[in-house]
Input
Amino acid sequence: MTVPRHHFLISPLRLASAVTVPFARRLSNAASSNKPEPLLSEPDLESGLYLVSTPIGNLEDITLRALRVLKCANVILSEDTRHSGKLLQHYNIKTPLLSFHKFNEREREPTILRRLHEGEAVALISDAGTPGISDPGMELARLCATEKIPVIPIPGPSAAIAALSASGLPSNEFTFVVRNYWGQSIFSILVGFLPKHARSRRDRLEISAREAATQIFYVPPHGIQQFLVDAASSFGDSRHCVVAREITKIHEEFWRGTLGEANEAFATRQPKGEITVLIEGKLISDDEIPSEDFLEHELRELTAKGYTLSAAVKLVTEATSAKKKDVYALALRLFGK
Output
């Protein structure tokens, strides 16, 4: 279950030595000009799915690591190739683009998984921000994790985090809401660090265990064993979890399994570094038929992007559980014949 990936990453020291001060200065100057200089040659990427965060507006809000990954990947999966093409052109990146959005990701997934199994490095970007966060990519990342294909986050801009950090509102805990194919709300709750007092800690875990949202905790390395014991007691041994350690660092690791398995795995192990633990929410049965408001939103979005009415109906039908006749009838009411 443990998937250590230190051999997939370039040492920060090696990367720092490769990116000299003059180059960093040239890159900064390039960000404000129309013709940025080409990036320095970098070693090939190890095979895996790279989730690359891209600017939410200002093109300077991209990391050196993100630029290197986009330059060296075999292919870039893009939500909108026309939109992403402008970013790549700005930084003189020639990597091939392949469209990957909510209307075709199920169709694309088998081909992408095959390419990953064959040893390719695949970068995934959305129109803006972090892939998989209210954007395509969540299901592909899940499939890769299931098939033991490395999933490597390249962190960067996130509209929600940027807005929260500058809001002045309480941010010790917050809920993030996205929608799935069927218009259902999917929640993630950042709990952060739990109270130090044992009783208060258990009380907070009991609250989290009843939530349908994914629960996200920050855990100090010396407290991981006790945390897993308490979490298993509140959530149950069968609840799935992910223990993410040293994210973006040389010993980055993602451990996946149940809380019961995590207790066994970490009972005699004392990990080092920063740890983030994610625990799946309580399963709640729900009707997967999409709402009419959701279907209307999807149809309007596609037609605004230039799709014909029949093409938009086809894409919405294939991406949801809605019946084609119902989607077509709604399209006719919205846009006429």
Remarks:
- The longest helix spans residues 105-117.
